[in-house]
Design a protein that fits this description.
- By secondary structure, this protein is mainly beta.
- It has a single domain, classed as Beta Barrel (Thrombin, subunit H).
- This is PilZ domain-containing protein.
């Protein structure tokens, strides 16, 4: 059963900086939606049990500072994947992520 309200889009070419209040880590976004984000290859040192994490997503010359609530984590050797709910999302975020939506064909057969 798919519980997603908003479609996930490839976060290709989007970078992130994330902090748990103690450490600071960077990487590339796996996928995004209006109120969610998936980050891969996060060092195990990041405290995903923190209530909220500070997150900056950067791409196409723009930066978005948000807070995120970790929803699930999967550890994979020396790193982990974290799925998070975005909170304090800037108004222009929705328009920005539309740039990453798959292009649909407007031609008819």
């Amino acid at each position: 059963m798919n519980k997603r309200r908003y479609p996930r889009m490839n976060g290709k070419n989007l970078r992130f900086d994330i902090s748990d209040g103690s450490g600071f880590f960077s990487g590339y976004v796996s996928d995004i939606s209006r109120f969610g984000i998936l980050l891969d290859d996060i060092p195990l040192k990041l405290d995903h049990s923190a209530k909220t994490l500070s997150l900056v997503v950067s791409g196409n010359g723009k930066n978005f500072k948000m807070m995120a609530i970790p929803k699930w984590t999967v550890e994979k050797g020396i790193s982990k994947t974290i799925g998070m709910e975005l909170i304090n999302v800037p108004y222009i975020w929705a328009g920005f992520i539309r740039e990453f939506a798959p292009k649909t064909s407007l031609t008819h057969p």
